[in-house]
Amino acid sequence: MDSPLEPNTQIPNDQPVQVGWSSKADSEQQIARHTHTMVVGPYLKERPARGLEKRAHSLRAPEARLEEASGLALAIDLDVQISELVTLTEIRPATFIGTGKIEELAALAAEREIGLVVMDCALSPVQQRNLEKAFGAKVIDRTGLILEIFGRRARTREGSLQVELAHLTYQKSRLVRSWTHLERQRGGFGFLGGPGETQIETDRRLILDRMVKIERELEGVKKTRGLHRKSREDVPFPLVALVGYTNAGKSTLFNTLTKSDVLAQDMLFATLDPTLRALKLPHGGKIILSDTVGFISDLPTMLVSAFRATLEEVISADVILHVRDIAHEDAHAQGADVEHILKTLGVDPDDHNRVIEVWNKIDQLDLERRDGLAHMVRQRGPSGPVLVSAITGEGLDTLLDAVETRVARGRTVIELDLPAEDGAGLHWLYENAEVLARRESEDGAAHLTLRVSPERIDQLMRRFGLDAGVVAAH
Hints:
The chain is α/β, with parallel strands linked by helices. Helix content is 40%, strand content 18%.
């Protein structure tokens, strides 16, 4: 992957592409801020939906999709000069959009000295190359832009490796010369540059070699993660994962609940690597809360597979909190996108015993809208969504009660008297069960109320010589 390049940088044809990971975040940010960018939303005119389900993106207005694409560009500090909506009746194999529109956009690009054009669609290498020739500027598609954002946001070694592998998979089919005059090749920022024509085969070999090396490193990282996951499974606390569309407020909610300081900003993909914290529930039980990467419509397939290990926190979670920005005009479409990705991970979004919808940002709603949502929540009953504001804290007590109800299902509550001298037994209980209440008598004996997971119940009964009559289902 290339070092950041100014749009007008000239590079000799014999210079190979660099495929090592770049950590020059400050330099990339400076270059991005000086890159005049045009965001183009080329969307097909919607036809009547067939079947029982519409595609999630068809629920969105084209204007909202273009606004999101501009937000993605702003997330990596690009200087967005123009946002242009293009309505298509068909996709052109060579250029995606029609000749007339290309000429119009090319004139705009020349007038505003555009150095980068972001196409909010998936482009083939041929389409990308042809558009770059027509615009006289670097062109990236939605996949390339999301990869760039992920590259900026990755903080852990595993996250960086996963992004790099996904990008190399994307890049290897795009080793084509982009410029037809002088000695210029794609000017870029971050790792989205391209090589000169004479180096294509060498660069492809270097990329494949690098991919093999990354896959080996990832195997080692996955083994380490497996050990960490096993150690977490040995802890008796349930895992609760936050998921949701990017910028839905997951990290703010995570910070408010756990009193942490995870990066939480009004930007797309502020969080990439998962973060875990312990959290105490109202009646004394504990959970492990996990904040995960935000989802987005048309998430590149290569990233879904690359981040499957990261998303294992979701797959293995006892309870999943689907956080939605209920104040957003596309809240329904965003929710459908998240549900689609959950299904690809093998999670049933309609399993209300496991998935809780959290309707966040109610502080941004007017009174009439809030009353309407509150009425809707009451109609749906205990399995319905929970209205919250991560900023003001409103509704968080109700949310924690709902979480506690879910994690208690299938677990067993036991009343146990423990002699004062059994300190080792007391320590064992705190390590292997949830101590909901503890009361000590005058002689130092402890009366404990415990909640125990199904896989620990037999072990506890043997350890303390209990019989089945003592055990009561919660």
